[in-house]
Amino acid sequence: MTSPRLILNDELTWHDRERWDEALSLLRNLFSHNNDLDEIRRLAVALRRDIDAVDHFIQQNTAQVCPDCQKVCCINRHGYYDYQDLIYITALGNAPPLYGEGIVDTAPCQFLSKYGCAIERSIRPFRCNWHFCTDLIAFMSSGPAKPLRAFNLQFRELQLLRQEMTDFFFDILSRDSNQNLL
Ligand code: SF4
Ligand code: SF4
Angle at CA 12, nearest 5°, toward 87 and 111? Predict the structure, then answer.
């Protein structure tokens, strides 16, 4: 089997369909056959809960700033999952959406509807959840300090949790492959 790290890394892109399909198949296989990955499932559920917990604060602010925006930031390139997103959503038992062919990266994102993003926040590409433009940051900073402080803290924690989940995923795979060599 190809080493997971050779496929699941920052180079992975939906535009390289062969690699992408290989990554999805690898992840599906690992999560359906390896009980050692239960801990990754638990971390993914905790991460989803933490993302859900910041939804209200983000929504409250974007609802004020984004409707009048002339330079909407949701372009197609941002709607693709990266390898950490794939680990996360596979651990949750989900799969990436079917992407439309022939849409250039700089076109409006294929998931942007007139009501905003059509993908539930907790399973959006992670980059979408931490993109805050200067107007949005300025608006958030002009509001009460306590909720902003709480949000910053929650946000830092969920970034750390996501990294912990990814690192642990590779640790488990490397431990399992070392055991198989004994
Ligand atoms: S986050 Fe900023 S750039 Fe994106 S739609 Fe909202 S106001 Fe516009
Ligand atoms: S937030 Fe949704 S609509 Fe915007 S770029 Fe991300 S996936 Fe696309």
Answer: 75
